[in-house]
Design a protein that fits this description.
The structure holds 2 protein chains of 2 kinds. Chain A has a 5-stranded parallel β-sheet with strand order 2-1-3-4-5. The C terminus of chain A is likely disordered. By secondary structure, chain A is of the alpha/beta class. Chain A has one domain: Rossmann fold (3-Layer(aba) Sandwich), CATH 3.40.50. The radius of gyration of chain A is 16 Å and the shape is globular. Chain B has one domain: SGNH hydrolase (Rossmann fold), CATH 3.40.50.1110. Chain B is globular, with a radius of gyration of 17 Å. Chain B is 43% helix and 10% strand. Chains A and B meet through helix 1 and helix 6 of A and helix 1 and helix 6 of B. Chain B: Its EC number is 3.1.1.47. Chain B: This is Platelet-activating factor acetylhydrolase IB subunit alpha2. Chain B: Keywords: Cytoplasm, Hydrolase, Lipid degradation, Lipid metabolism. Chain B: Belongs to the 'GDSL' lipolytic enzyme family. Platelet-activating factor acetylhydrolase IB beta/gamma subunits subfamily. Chain B: GO terms for molecular function: 1-alkyl-2-acetylglycerophosphocholine esterase activity; platelet-activating factor acetyltransferase activity.
């Protein structure tokens, strides 16, 4: 795996305020505050797929009762999540589980670089929260029909799954219930824009995830 | 009003497939297909503010019953919406009302250009659907605290307020005031990322919008009424 110094996906980088309304930093600051105010058992971290989960009924139904915090920000790539977690979003809390779902927005990076970025985040979480278990969710396929990004994401998952297999403090969880149909297509009933999940899509992803996290013996450890 | 041929925000333009998964074109193709399959009474068109609305319960509660179609596409500028409407997304349909909500993503353009782009779309809709009423939604404030984009969006809204009446069939609905608190902040309870609306945020907008749409739909033209008998 690439050394952090030469892997842009594994180099902590804040998001530039290109548009001029400071939204990314506002969200980060809000998450840091939540760390001071709350005592979560589970923290979800990642991109829009994490962030949007919080907006659907399924969050209140399945995850709120487990004392979860949601630190997803739309558009984030691995290097942005790495920066956020290095700058306060893991401070003052001691969750049992960190759910990490990121990688699909790493445009311009190779599968190896993206996997390296994800593993750098896993290492950081372990350094900051030695007692937490990190559950890394597989990056979902995207696009209506087969395309290079599906291959890239599948390769990321393979590399990450391999790298995690030797760790006891982290594990890989494939949340893809089979979104790709037999003709190679993804339905807009599952992903309304062939990337983001509908409520129906989230149901299929969240139910197994919830079962895993909510197990009484849970540190999220998979058999 | 800006001359359309000089206004970059009024030039139709598809979105380039930069990432390589063809999602923009795939969504557009689906909308074109929906025009062949459906007979909407209301058409919603715009950016992610429109697109996300369909993902919440509120859509099924308030707008599906009106036989509404949703042609929102995240990230779209006025140029992209113009292109989509000129390339199949108005074919074979005769909605009585069109809700247009776009402009917040026009980052390279001035407020005047953005307002001009929105008016150009409203004009196109009026030309293609002479009997339809166009409801233009004001651009919402964005960002947690006051910032230049809030000022820009407010300036767009002021221009729309003065330019749209010239079109006759267009009305303007702006609920911006509802979202900014006394201290100038926007709450994440209304906009989870200080741009996109939560379910609660959408409710604030949906009530007056639904009232307006119901009014429009009740004004059934004589020939429609006859065919219902």
């Amino acid at each position: 795996m690439s050394a952090e110094a030469s892997n842009p996906a594994a180099t902590p980088t804040p998001c530039e305020d290109a548009q001029g309304d400071g939204r990314w930093m506002s969200q980060h600051v809000r998450f840091v505050s939540e760390c001071k105010e709350r005592e979560p058992d589970v923290v979800f971290v990642g991109d829009s797929l994490v962030q949007l989960m919080h907006q659907f009924g399924i969050w209140r139904q399945l995850f709120s009762p487990l004392h979860c915090l949601n630190f997803g920000i739309g558009g984030d790539a691995t290097q942005h999540v790495l920066w956020r977690l290095s700058n306060g979003e893991l401070d003052n809390i001691s969750p049992k589980v960190v759910v990490l779902w990121v990688g699909t927005n790493n445009h311009g990076h190779t599968a190896e670089q993206i996997a390296g970025g994800i593993m750098a985040i896993v290492q950081l979480i372990h350094n900051k929260l030695p007692h937490a278990h990190t559950l890394v969710l597989g990056v979902l396929p995207r696009g209506r029909m087969p395309n290079p990004l599906r291959e890239r994401n599948a390769q990321v998952n393979k590399l990450v799954q391999d790298a995690l297999s030797s760790l006891s403090h982290a594990s890989f969880f494939n949340v893809d219930p089979g979104f790709v149909l037999s003709d190679g297509s993804i339905s807009h009933q599952d992903m309304y824009d062939y990337l983001h999940l509908t409520a129906h899509g989230y149901q299929a992803v969240c139910e197994p995830l919830h079962s895993l996290i909510a197990r009484p013996d849970t540190n999220g450890t998979l058999a | 009003m800006s001359g359309d041929d000089l206004n970059p925000a009024a030039v139709p333009q598809p979105v380039e497939d930069l990432h390589g998964d063809g999602r923009w074109l795939a969504q557009h193709a689906r909308f074109v297909q929906e025009c062949k399959d459906g007979e909407p009474e209301v058409l919603f068109v715009g950016d992610s503010m429109v697109q996300l609305m369909e993902q919440y319960e509120i859509w099924r509660e308030m707008f599906s019953p009106l036989h509404a179609l949703n042609f929102g596409l995240a990230g779209d500028t006025t140029c992209n919406v113009l292109w989509r409407l000129q390339n199949g997304e108005l074919q074979n349909i005769r909605p009585k009302a069109v809700v247009l909500w776009v402009g917040t993503n026009n980052h390279g353009h001035t407020a005047e250009q953005v307002a001009g782009g929105i008016v150009a779309i409203a004009q196109l809709l009026t030309n293609r659907l002479p009997k339809a009423k166009i409801v233009v939604l004001g651009l919402l404030p964005r960002g947690e605290r006051p910032n230049p984009l809030r000022e820009k969006n407010a300036a767009v809204n002021r221009l729309l307020c003065s330019w749209l009446p010239r079109l006759g069939q267009a009305s303007f609905l702006d609920v911006s005031k509802e979202f900014v608190h006394a201290d100038g902040t926007i709450s994440s309870q209304d906009m989870f990322d200080y741009l996109h609306l939560t379910s609660a945020g959408y409710r604030t907008l949906a009530k007056p919008l639904l009232d307006l749409l119901l009014q429009i739909l009740e004004e059934t033209p004589e020939d429609r009424r006859a065919s219902l008998v």
